[in-house]
Amino acid sequence: MSLTVQKFGGTSLADPEKIHRAARRAIRAKLEGHRVVLVVSAMGHTTDELLTLARAVCADPPKRELDMLLTTGEQISIALMAMAIDAAGHEAISLTAGQLGLLTDSAHTRARIQRISRERLDRELAEGKIVIVAGFQGIDAGGEITTLGRGASDTTAAALAAVLGADVCEIYTDVDGVYTADPRVVPQARKIDEISYDVMLEMAAAGAVVMHSRAIEFAKKFNVPIHVRSSLTDAKGTMIMSETQSMEAVAVQGVTLKEDLAFVSLTAVPNTPGVAARIFAEVAKNHIVVDDIVQNIYDGGKFANLGFSTNAADAREARAVCERLAKSLGIGKVEVDEGVSKLSAIGVGMRTHTGIAATMFEALAHAAINIENISTSEIVISCIIRREDGPKALRFIHDAFKLGDTDNRPGSS
Amino acid sequence: MSLTVQKFGGTSLADPEKIHRAARRAIRAKLEGHRVVLVVSAMGHTTDELLTLARAVCADPPKRELDMLLTTGEQISIALMAMAIDAAGHEAISLTAGQLGLLTDSAHTRARIQRISRERLDRELAEGKIVIVAGFQGIDAGGEITTLGRGASDTTAAALAAVLGADVCEIYTDVDGVYTADPRVVPQARKIDEISYDVMLEMAAAGAVVMHSRAIEFAKKFNVPIHVRSSLTDAKGTMIMSETQSMEAVAVQGVTLKEDLAFVSLTAVPNTPGVAARIFAEVAKNHIVVDDIVQNIYDGGKFANLGFSTNAADAREARAVCERLAKSLGIGKVEVDEGVSKLSAIGVGMRTHTGIAATMFEALAHAAINIENISTSEIVISCIIRREDGPKALRFIHDAFKLGDTDNRPGSS
User: Which of A146, A268, B219, B379 could serve as a FRET partner for B80 with CA atoms 20 to 30 Å apart?
Assistant: First the structure.
């Protein structure tokens, strides 16, 4: 008997009417003959409201108690969802992470899943119930309540789908799929029908906020297809799945813009073994998030210019750390530019298509947009540009890669 | 080392400032050298708000899911309380019923405590932490989340105090103690300094809403003194404790009014063995709450008039049940009066003092208030009267028993 995992986010559960709508979807899947596991987030803005309350009580709340507090949001949702399904005359049962046996490590507010017990799930499913699981939360070996990080209900859903060998993991959200670019910035953006795990991971890392990266990693590892779709319509959304040949026929599948970045440049860095390691160890120790790293050598390899992008919020701290490093390591100069964005083009077809980088650079030249730094990987090309150029740049490269065309895009509609 | 259990109700935790005030009290007890266990209710009107949400989703929510929903209120409170204590620079840890090991039976929404594990409590207390326990909730042997009934955080506190052999269980609330009568109805009412478990139990049953009855039963069984006091001041409140000689010197310690009752009268009931049993079994089966029962025989014991008080909300159902019974048992007539209240006088001194009933009846006669039914027990005299006469009756008997006098009341101030 097939099994479907359905996950509903906070906006799809914001009020009793929306909870009933989500319940009807689960019931329909049940009536179509599937076993159904629902994963739910906290209603609407509940998590933010709880965080506000926590900060009103304590400037820097202990992480264990934050997890104790925030997990109530999902517990409210599972109970209400079970009531909604009961009201419609069907059997359901809600389960907290503790009741289910979703074990994590003990890293409060950013725990990682270690093991999911199937026993309770299998028992409830065998009794014909729709099983409703609280997303985002876990329990450690000592019975402490943990959370998996903001947005991690997706991860709960993908992990459950993996453990249960689900046929599909449906992510219901307020958009109708993954787009070739953010439609709020690029009106010509199209919904993508099928996308590979790797491209989706790169798009998420490059600024597309459709799904939590760890959820995609889980799905990839266990080869569970993820269907990202709207909670408001029955239209097909985007399937995130293993790579197919038709995907490779397309050079670029999507373009993204990651805003609110800063770029840190270290010039005249002595190019001796261990220097880069020293620098990034120190940066990591100070909890500064590093996005991309670029390095060029010069002067016959004696020196290097080393740069990395980081969150704009971390810019001040990054400058302080790097200036300390510059003194102790004999680095020439530290410059921090807080006004940049990262523009990326992503697609598995890049491996086999040529001239992709040239097309991107030409499009930006045509728009009179200066490129400050460039980094590439197997399936991504990224440019650091001025923040104010971002939206225009995104529209120009979306156009240059013909992502708005429906004619020559297999795997898109 | 002495141990104090402090319980804070929802009104004492309604906002961050009030949470901090409660936290300061716990910290003060800690600094005075006590080990401290805090029991907290849900903030302000949280439980009512969650119930409203539940009813918006499902007219008759499954009880298991109601418990799943409502227990989030106390979980929010324990987390915020731990944060408040942390913000003040002291160590605390919050525990759900599951983490603590507060085991109940499986009767959702009205579970009874079966066992409380000391292990986790002792461990955290030994580390010098203030331990914060979620009131109202429990966990059954299968790991299901249960609740102990509305207002049962008092019960959690009393049960913990009993298990831990606490020196005192302090109940912080928005009144400053137990009064000789409801001060909103009787302005002359005085705070009682000391009251016995039995008198407090009878007062609670007769309409005083200061504390949950089961909490008093726990405290009595394990002889834990309960101190009911205001969360706003440092004034001494009321000690609920074992009977002392000075208590017996007072005939009546308090008077109460239980409103919103109905009185069901069955006339010409065949007085044969098993008839009363048949009647009350049927009433219980229909979940009708029976308050007091009064029966008189007549006609040489051939017939009886049988009456009982019940909640006004149950009146219609009680009538239907009794009319069916009247047919099958050959009972003469069923009358239901929905407009009555119960007036009670309570005190351990009644056992040794005489003329208490006469004083009460004379006071009512003097006020021209008619008595419809009378029932008495060892330490209670109750009269059923017209609801509109209630407040006046309460003032008259409060006066008649000189409860407003400070001169001749040992154990009161």
Answer: B219
Residue B89 lies in a domain: yes
pLDDT tens-digit map of A319-341:
999 999 999 999 999 999 999 99
Q: Would you say residue B83 lies in a domain?
A: yes
Number of A to B CB contacts under 8 A, please give it: 108
Tell if the CB–CB gap between B68 and A84 is shorter than 8 Å: no
Q: B235 CA to chain A: closest CA distance, Å?
A: 26
Nearest to A79 among B69, B83, B96 (CB): B69
Chain B: give the shortest CA distance to residue A23, in Å.
11
Identify the three-state secondary structure at position A208: coil
Let me know whether A7 and A144 are in one domain.
yes
The residue whose two tokens read 């860095």 is A269
Q: pLDDT digit string (tens) for A249-285?
A: 888 999 999 998 999 999 999 888 888 888 999 998 8
Residue A70 lies in a domain: yes
pLDDT reported for residue B406: 62
ipTM value = 0.85
Encoding tokens for residue B362? 């004379």
Q: How many CB atoms are closer than 10 A to CB A55?
A: 13
Q: Determine the structural domain holding residue A164 and report its residue range.
A: 3-174
Task: State which of A135, A154, A174 marks the end of a domain.
Answer: A174
- Same domain for A309 and A167, yes or no, is no
Mutate to test the interface with A, among B21, B72, B140, B144 (most CBs of A within 10 A): B72
Report the gap between the CA of B86 and the closest CA in chain A (Å): 8
Among residues A174, A200, A219, the one where a domain terminates is A174
Mutate one of A19, A55, A65 to test the B interface: name it (highest B CB count within 10 A).
A65
What are the pLDDT digits (tens) for B239-258?
Answer: 999 998 888 888 899 999 99
Tell me how crowded residue B142 is: count the other CB atoms within 10 A of its CB: 8
> Which of B58, B93, B145 comes nearest A87 by C-beta?
B58
Residue with tokens 């909604």: A84
Give the Cα separation of B38 and A400 in Å (integer). 65
* Reported pTM: 0.86
Of residues B20, B69, B79, nearest to A76 (C-beta): B69
Q: Which residues of B touch A144 (CB under 8 A)?
A: 99
> What pLDDT does B193 receive?
94
Does any domain span residue B188?
A: no
CATH number of the domain to which A66 belongs:
3.40.1160.10
Number of domains in chain A: 2
Q: Give the pLDDT band of residue A123 (cuts 50, 70, 90).
A: very high
Rounded CA-CA distance A108/A65 in Å is: 9
Instruction: Kindly report the number of other CB atoms within 10 A of residue A406's CB atom.
Output: 9
Give the residues of chain B that fall short of pLDDT 70: 405-413
Q: Are residues A158 and A302 in the same domain?
A: no
Residue whose token pair is 């120790």: A285
Shortest Cα–Cα distance, B231 to chain A (Å): 18
Q: Would you say B381 and B357 are in contact if contact means Cβ atoms under 8 Å apart?
A: yes
